[in-house]
Amino acid sequence: MTSNAVLTITDLCTEFETDNGQVRVLDGVTFHVPKGKTVGIVGESGCGKSVTAMSIMGLLPKPFGNIVEGRIDYAHQGKIDDLASLTPDKMYQMRGNAISMIFQDPMTALNPVHTIGKQLMEVYQLHQPELKKKQRYQLSLEMLEKVGIPSATQRMLEFPHQLSGGMRQRVMIAIALACKPDVLICDEPTTALDVTVQAQILDLMTSLQQETGMSIIFITHDLGVVAEICDQVVVMYAGKVVEQADVFELFDHPSHPYTQGLLASMPNSQSIPKAILPTIEGAVPNLNEMPVGCRFASRCPYQQDKCLQQAPILELKNAEHQVSCHFWSDLRAKGNGQEPAV
Ligand SMILES: Nc1ncnc2c1ncn2[C@@H]1O[C@H](COP(=O)(O)OP(=O)(O)O)[C@@H](O)[C@H]1O
Ligand SMILES: [Mg+2]
């Protein structure tokens, strides 16, 4: 386990029982989250970002979703707990106290029949039962103010449907932060919001992080957001990590052809119409028919025989950069030092 890591995820394999049999949705996912830093997880829809979050949170749908291999080591108070093997009771205590999560759609997580105040006060009651009702009320009010909700006294009395999308997301953040988690997992928390509100929420999260020193796992498909707020980036493809690096290193030297494709399809300027941006051709392989070799091979412009025969493993390119491609060093050489455009 890396010494400054609060979470170290090693060879995590998660499977679902489906009508088509057992499918392996995460296959050997490995990365770590340094203390006080933000780690972005990116990749196309269906690559396993949310399942990674659910596995860490112990919130896989039971009995169908299960971690079948691997560890999720959580370092706290001088000891290490493997979240993958905690009992449901212990995991319940971890959620909120140690690790909180905010979701893309706050309506799925907020209770429509309870006021904002009641829901927030409940969190304090659960995690700090010694507090008096008046103290819980006061803390809830302060937390709403902290996340930038105006007229907080009035909002305490309102129901989720009375708030705008941006305000609901702030309430979710307030609830997630109420117990001062060590790790906050954000699963596409700003996707449903308009750009201005999105920017406000991102600013808010960065300043709360500076204040509390928490670590953040930020799941998104928006590389612009990654560039703005993440320290490190994990790129996932078809249930595997294909590349991970410091954010500057990743944007300057993307080394997996898939990452290169993702970056190439990113709009650099508002003036480029989306329609003419390059996209990565082809489709992700079916979970039931994963190839033995590299999972990206069928879409990779640099595919060679070895890619079809043997799965690459995550290799250390340098201390800040790991990549899972047989030919990453050749690809760089070919481009005369320049990254090839996929
Ligand atoms: N409850 C479930 N049962 C079966 N398969 C699931 C379930 N939830 C997710 N999956 C599958 O797991 C894969 C990863 O999903 P997910 O983590 O939600 O992707 P994303 O990267 O878009 O968040 C997808 O192929 C999805 O179909
Ligand atoms: Mg998702």
Number of helices: 13
Q: Give a list of the ligands.
A: adenosine-5'-diphosphate, magnesium ion
User: What's the helix-strand series?
Assistant: EEEHEEHEHHHHHEHEHEEHHHEEH
- Output mean pLDDT: 89
The major pleated sheet works out as: 8 strands, mixed
| DSSP summary, beta strand count | 12
Strand content: 15-25%
Strand order of the largest sheet: 6-7-8-3-9-10-12-11
How many domain modules? 2
| Cα Rg | 21 Å
Under CATH at level 1, the class of the largest domain stands as Alpha Beta
A few lines on this structure:
The protein is an alpha/beta fold.
How is the topology of this model organized?
Layout: E1 5-18, E2 21-34, E3 38-42, H1 49-57, E4 65-76, E5 79-82, H2 88-97, E6 99-102, H3 106-109, H4 116-127, H5 133-146, H6 152-156, H7 165-177, E7 183-187, H8 195-212, E8 215-219, H9 223-229, E9 232-237, E10 240-246, H10 247-252, H11 257-264, H12 305-309, E11 315-318, E12 321-323, H13 328-334
Parallel strand pairs: 3-8, 3-9, 6-7, 7-8
Antiparallel strand pairs: 1-2, 1-4, 4-5, 9-10, 10-12, 11-12
The chain binds adenosine-5'-diphosphate and magnesium ion.
